[in-house]
Specification:
nine-stranded mixed beta sheet; single chain; 2 domains; Ribosomal Protein S5, domain 2; seven-stranded mixed beta sheet; Rossmann fold; alpha/beta; 421 residues
């Protein structure tokens, strides 16, 4: 394997890192299956999102809002990774002294952790060849630059050039690379979209900085399930794992208050019980207000139209506010029925049963459609003490505990009728 930089380009042109390899095509039947070795990070929640651990030779992109805890998480996992691996931490945003202060605050003391404050990709490649690390952390990829490109740091050309160079080192020398990525004001990863295609896994660190909970979500993973989720809590001593996210999200749930409904959704392979809250009040405006947090706004408007048409509820006279507790974002249709029941509870000012959980997708005709992994959802809801679980009638769950009542429904009308009983 030969790896080199092309000769300096003429003025006005951009040259990139070229990787030449003496390889030949081979028949698929004779190709070997690689045994991907994983390294544990010390956080079971992070290992879950990665698909079981950090794969050797993989490139992982970690993105999130400023101050959400990306650098804190990476520094903490260094304490475990350095026990069996040599780690090179490249920082383009902080000095060596600042990194040392963070390491002391987090209690990280690892002799095999090397700190390198540099942004020039040529010098970083030279240092990689000198240190020969097993794991490389680059914080962040938007701060790196190459002399072969005349554009400024953070530009599309620079991000692509530097990521390609680090990807080549990862694949050619079996180095695990963790890249930190900035996000723009829309919440997407800054830089070219091709950056997400180049890496093996894309992780988003989500959450409100005013809240202690942080959610790590995988949106791409070549070595595990996508949409997997891990939950952390930010403390004075760094990030701590939340081993029971469902119980944490339901903590402090009010009793006897209208507009609240529990739902069990699937985040990757993990069932998660969340609370949906709605507030419905008479409007004083010509056009009623609609606000949604943690649930798709257009989907909420669609459900409001279904409730108005099929059940005759007068939401057009009311302001509607919807929120998913804990900063969680619900993306799957299985939360439709719970949102609808919370809206019905809010407009009628009648509380839902506190021990009831609702699961199901709602169609435009008001029908309740089937969802997948119903057994795992019911098991998680019953584990948390829910005694009544409303599910689509066409789902066929396996028998569970006798003290749990499964209520199958075909439509919104049936769901409302069972709740009133």
């Amino acid at each position: 394997m030969e790896e080199k930089y092309d000769a300096p380009a003429p003025s006005g042109e951009t040259k990139r890192l070229s990787i030449t390899c003496a390889s030949h095509a081979e028949p698929l039947s004779g190709a070997g299956v690689p045994e991907y070795i994983r390294s544990k990070t010390g956080f079971s929640e992070l290992d879950r999102v990665l698909g079981g651990g950090l794969v050797h030779g993989s490139v992982v992109l970690l993105a999130g809002e400023p101050g959400i805890g990306k650098s804190t998480l990476l520094m903490q996992i260094c304490a475990v990774l350095c026990k069996n691996h040599r780690v090179l931490y490249v920082s383009g945003e902080e000095s060596t002294g600042q990194l040392k202060l963070r390491a002391e605050r987090l209690g990280v003391c690892a002799p095999e952790l090397y700190i390198f404050t540099e942004t020039n990709i040529s010098r970083i490649i030279d240092e990689i060849d000198h240190i020969k690390p097993d794991i490389l952390i680059a914080d962040s990829v938007q701060t790196l630059y190459s002399d072969r490109s005349a554009s400024s740091q953070g530009s599309v050309a620079q991000v692509k050039e530097c990521a390609l160079a680090l990807q080549g080192k990862a694949k050619n020398e079996d180095i695990s690379v963790l890249l930190v990525g900035h996000v723009n004001k829309e919440g997407a990863i800054a830089g070219p979209k091709v950056l997400e295609h180049m890496v093996d896994a894309v992780l988003y660190f989500e959450g409100e900085r005013q809240h202690s909970y942080r959610i790590l979500r995988a949106v791409k993973n070549r070595y595990g399930a996508a949409n997997e989720l891990g939950m952390f809590e930010m403390t004075d001593t760094g990030l701590c794992e939340v081993e029971n996210p469902s119980a944490a999200l339901l903590e402090g749930r009010p009793v006897g208050i209208s507009g609240s409904c529990a739902v069990c959704v699937m985040e990757g392979t993990r069932p998660l019980v969340a609370e949906i809250q709605t507030l419905v009040s008479k409007t004083v405006f010509a056009a009623p207000r609609r606000t949604s947090g943690g649930f798709d706004y257009n989907r909420m408007c669609l459900l409001l139209a279904v409730l108005e048409k099929r059940l005759g509820l007068r939401f057009y006279e009311c302001d509607v506010y919807l929120n998913v507790i804990g900063g969680l974002t619900l993306n799957e249709p299985a939360a439709d029925l719970a949102v609808a029941m919370a809206l019905i509870s809010g407009i009628n000012d009648i509380p839902m049963p506190h021990d009831a959980a609702v699961i199901g997708e709602v169609g435009l005709a008001g029908e309740v459609r089937t969802v997948f992994n119903i057994d795992a959802r019911i098991k998680e809801a019953s584990r948390l003490g829910f005694k009544k679980i409303i599910i689509p009638a066409k789902n066929r769950p396996h028998p569970i505990k006798e003290d749990v009542q499964i209520i199958p429904v075909n439509s919104l009308y049936e769901a409302v009728r069972h709740v009133k009983q």
